[in-house]
Design goal:
Layout (H helix, E strand, L loop, with lengths): L2 H15 L3 H14 L8 H8 L2 E5 L5 H4 L8 E5 L2 H7 L6 E4 L5 H9 L3 E6 L4 H7 L7 E5 L15 H11 L4 E5 L14 H15 L7
Parallel strand pairs: 1-2, 1-6, 2-3, 3-4, 4-5
Length: about 220
């Protein structure tokens, strides 16, 4: 999704959730400075890694049971805290999408083992960006939800899951399926506001509509 298409939806989401666009921009600037010395993968490299079939893995309570439906024909992208749960059972995803609000040590381990990461900046994770990004030694793709600039990108999306869907779509993936998703009953996260989480999931459902084969 290009910025011109994403911008009006982004502002609607920010207004609905009461978030500050200026904080997103500040976080984006921090990520941009942090990634200056890092090598960002080329567009063609990302397209080749994704292929034409992708499974996007979410962090539903049923995740560990649902992974039995994974197919080797599909590139795996873990979204958010799904990465840590996969790593704990010995599954290293091909790619991951994160805003660094989960168990980042497992995410760093996956990246060091060859997982391509899309690392996201928003108004609530400035400290995490400053802490985690300098620890990385592998290339990654820096993403934002505000207007992109310089060396950072916006493919659309607001949560890790729907952002992963739009990333795959942006790079031309033809078949996108989800595994371990439950937008009606999101996996509880310590300290998370269930009302806010429900609002985010409602937006996620709207964002991914029309992009997924099995939802």
């Amino acid at each position: 999704m290009e910025w011109a298409e994403w911008e009006p939806l982004y502002h609607r989401i920010m207004d609905d959730l009461g978030f500050d666009v200026r904080a997103d921009v500040e976080s984006a600037e921090i990520l941009s400075r942090a990634v200056v010395s890092k090598r960002i993968p080329k567009y063609c490299t990302i397209v080749e890694m994704l292929g034409q079939r992708v499974s996007i893995i979410g962090a539903a309570e049923s995740l560990e049971d649902d992974i039995g439906t994974l197919s080797e024909e599909y590139t795996t992208i873990s979204a958010g805290s799904a990465t840590a749960r996969l790593m704990k059972i010995g599954i290293v995803p091909d790619m991951l999408v994160t805003d660094l609000d989960g168990d980042v040590d497992y995410e760093i381990e996956a990246i060091e083992k060859g997982t391509l990461a899309f690392i996201h900046a928003h108004g609530d994770n400035m400290a995490r960006i400053s802490e985690v990004v300098p620890r990385l030694t592998k290339p990654f793709v820096p993403t934002v939800q505000c207007k992109p600039f310089g060396n950072i990108y916006n493919f659309g999306g607001f949560t890790d899951g729907d952002r992963a869907v739009l990333i795959a779509s942006h790079f031309g993936v033809k078949h996108i399926r989800v595994v371990g998703w439950d937008l009606d009953h999101p996996y509880p996260k310590e300290g998370s506001d269930p009302v806010m989480k429900s609002k985010k999931m409602n937006w996620a459902r709207k964002i991914v509509s029309g992009h997924i084969d099995n939802i």
